[in-house]
Design the sequence.
């Protein structure tokens, strides 16, 4: 098998996206969903149920009494919170796999993904972009999912890739593509396709390093994820061996009319929001 | 030995020789480490942004987020423990940037420029620094001898 065939085989071996979460997401996407129907889907998965109750009873919400029924918790949290909780839960498991090819410290990929999702939301609000909040959250959270598959291959070829980055002025992603035949963005797109995600999310994942290559109708989402990723990498959130070897998209700044002070404000809003999110999710923000 | 984490937009000071202060994933942020070798008092700051004028309220709540608020605060807290300005050894790391980014993106550079300005005004000399580039850095400081180690992207440890 050629290297590229091996990589594609590894994509095929990627476990499916959790069914319970995917079905719940479909229900939650409807403007008027049936709570009891949703509860029926969720209660099958004990870990998911436990997580929902845990979040609902966390100090963050400060409820006067303990909520112990799933139905009550579902009603209380509402669609947006639930969706983010379900997606984060699923994504954190996916990114949890050992990724010696990229990570310097454990948990890095997951923290980076979560940070990018938070940053994307902050940019959307700041610029009042008209993109669906849930699309943004999903695309940003899963944008680097290709790294989970590519990790082992990057690890094998690390020296050559690193050499191209150090001496050949390539970004890490460009070097992946040159050495492995695929980069993690493309592979992420293939995974999202396999998982039957909507085309806009597939495109945003596949083109998060080259948003200008995204099909026009999905470009805004890809651009938003690209910019969020740029800023999160810049700050240094969960960057691994690739460090800051990621190309900045100056044109996006121009297009979105963002200047120095705007970026500083975005970083500030992001950090505040990230600390809150980490409190809720129970992960360290620093 | 106990590892004391300095979070993002955070600072810690210590006079416990058992402590090692550490701050992770410095990208465009700056890690500033100050140490009085005689009193064996050290402090570390991890700030994100150059100037607090963009948000006064945040500056009050979390001064460590900004160079202009965090740097004086770090020194003050070390003096409180008994450190002496004249003896302070000062080391700086971070201020990286993403690749071929326009200056708009370069918060790292602005973070470093303001530090130099503040130090110049206050007659403070920097004794060691590792700044810029496309790498991320983790910074460690041992309180017993003030030694600073950097872990740069995937490369091993280097002493600063
Ligand atoms: Fe990426
Ligand atoms: Fe990323």
Sequence:
């Amino acid at each position: 098998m050629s290297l590229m065939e091996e990589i594609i085989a590894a994509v095929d071996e990627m476990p499916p996206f959790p069914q319970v979460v995917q079905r719940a997401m479909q229900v939650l996407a409807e403007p008027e969903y049936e709570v009891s129907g949703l509860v029926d889907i969720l209660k099958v998965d004990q870990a998911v149920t436990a997580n929902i109750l845990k979040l609902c009873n966390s100090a963050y919400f400060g409820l006067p009494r303990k909520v112990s029924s799933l139905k009550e918790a579902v009603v209380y949290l509402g669609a947006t919170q639930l969706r983010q909780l379900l997606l984060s839960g699923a994504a954190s498991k996916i990114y949890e796999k050992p990724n010696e090819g990229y990570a310097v410290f454990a948990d890095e990929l997951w923290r980076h993904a979560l940070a990018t999702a938070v940053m994307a939301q902050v940019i959307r609000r700041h610029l009042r972009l008209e993109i669906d909040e849930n699309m943004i959250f999903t695309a940003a959270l899963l944008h680097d999912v290709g790294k989970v598959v590519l990790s082992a291959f990057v690890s094998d070829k690390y020296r050559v890739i690193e050499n191209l980055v150090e001496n050949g002025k390539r970004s890490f992603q460009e070097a992946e593509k040159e050495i492995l035949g695929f980069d993690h963005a493309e592979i992420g797109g293939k995974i999202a396709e396999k998982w039957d995600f909507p085309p806009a999310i597939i495109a945003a994942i596949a083109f998060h390093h080259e948003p200008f290559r995204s099909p026009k109708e999905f470009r805004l989402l890809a651009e938003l994820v690209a910019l969020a990723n740029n800023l999160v990498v810049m700050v240094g959130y969960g960057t691994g061996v690739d460090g800051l070897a990621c190309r900045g998209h100056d044109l996006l700044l121009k297009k979105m009319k963002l200047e120095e002070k705007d970026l500083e404000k975005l970083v500030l809003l992001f950090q505040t929001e990230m600390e809150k999110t980490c409190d809720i999710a129970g992960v360290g923000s620093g | 030995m106990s590892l004391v984490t300095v979070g993002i937009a955070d600072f810690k000071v210590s006079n416990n020789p058992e402590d090692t202060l550490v701050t992770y994933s410095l990208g465009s942020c700056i890690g500033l480490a100050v140490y009085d070798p005689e009193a064996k008092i050290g402090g570390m700051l991890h700030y994100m942004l150059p100037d607090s004028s963009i948000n006064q309220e945040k500056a009050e709540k979390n001064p460590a987020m900004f160079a202009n608020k965090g740097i004086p605060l770090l020194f003050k807290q070390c003096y409180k423990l008994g450190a002496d300005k004249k003896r302070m050894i000062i080391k700086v790391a971070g201020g990286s940037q993403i690749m071929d980014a326009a200056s708009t993106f370069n918060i790292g550079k602005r973070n470093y420029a303001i530090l130099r300005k503040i130090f110049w005004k206050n007659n403070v000399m920097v004794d060691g620094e590792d700044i810029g580039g496309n790498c991320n850095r983790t910074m460690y400081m041992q309180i017993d001898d003030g030694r600073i180690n950097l872990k740069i992207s995937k490369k091993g440890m280097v002493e600063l």
